[in-house]
Design goal:
InterPro entries: ATP_synth_B-like_membr_sf, ATP_synth_b/b'su_bac/chlpt, ATP_synth_F0_bsu_bac, ATP_synthase_B_chain. This is ATP synthase subunit b. 0% of the residues are buried. The chain has one domain (11-165). With 166 residues, it is mostly helical. The model has no long low-confidence stretch (mean pLDDT 87). It has helices at 2-6, 10-145, 149-165. It is built from three helices and no strands.
């Protein structure tokens, strides 16, 4: 350090100051403004990016609320459709029950009518068989009674007597 103090030259110092000031003026004129412009541009870019991020955040919140509204509407619509489907299902089941009951009653009535007609047919056939059996029995009894002549004459006289009384 002592060497620096001993070698100090006032002229050299002035020239160094003049060159330093000139360098500062040159830097101010040619380099300082572009550097400040670049810094200002960067600052503006950062501000714009922050504003864009804030706007995007607000837009995301709006979209989120819109999505929630759409989900709520979709749920309400789904619930309404499910309710309508249940009502249609219940109506179809009730209609099927009513139709089945009506068909069952109709079948029961037809069965009753068929049973009644079968019963009447069986009764008529039974009456026919009873009457034919009665006639056969009466014919056999009459043949036995009328086989001899004396019994035949008694029967005819008896019938004539009964006929006169009436």
């Amino acid at each position: 350090m002592e060497k620096l103090i001993n070698d100090f030259s006032f002229g050299l110092f002035i020239w160094q100051v003049v060159i330093f000031v000139g360098l500062i003026l040159l830097l101010k004129k040619f380099a300082w403004k572009p550097i400040l412009d670049a810094v200002n541009e960067r600052e503006e870019g950062i501000k714009n990016a922050l504003l864009s991020a804030e706007n995007a955040k607000k837009e995301m919140q709006n979209l989120k609320s819109d999505n929630e509204k759409l989900l709520a509407e979709a749920r309400a619509e789904r619930d309404a459709l499910m309710k309508e489907a249940r009502e249609i299902k219940d109506k179809m089941i009730n209609d099927a029950k009513v139709e089945a009951q009506a068909t069952g009653e109709k079948m029961i009535e037809q069965a009753k009518a068929a049973i009644t007609s079968e019963k009447n047919a069986a009764m008529a056939e039974l009456k026919n068989q009873v009457s034919s059996l009665s006639l056969e029995i009466a014919e056999k009894v009459l043949r036995d009674e009328l086989s001899n002549k004396e019994a035949q004459t008694k029967l005819v006289e008896k019938m004539l007597g009964d006929a006169k009384l009436n």
